[in-house]
Task: structure prediction
Amino acid sequence: MTKSTSRFSQGLGKLETIGGKAARPTVVEVANETAARPDEGRRVTKPGGRDGKVNIAGYFDPAVRKQLAMLAIEHETDQVKLMAEALNLLFEKYGRSPIASA
Result:
């Protein structure tokens, strides 16, 4: 670590102390803590069975999200299953296999 970086880090620590916040740990402290707990804080598997899947997103009017949420409630399902159904209908319309699953 260079001399100027060290002074900069010290200055940041003083500013945080003056502001009433605890000083941030240094890079070395964080690295040592992470090495001591290699799996903690890291997600081993994706929640909800998302392993091997990708996110597909788009921007729509807020009314679209509200209507989708209402449909999910009315049909006692979730929005992802409804979107998979919609994608499968789209795929079939264009002669493709309905392969989307939630």
Observations:
- The chain is about 55% helix and 0% strand.
- The helical segments are 3-18, 27-36, 62-74, 79-93.
- The chain has a mean pLDDT of 81.
- The chain has two domains: 3-36, 46-102.
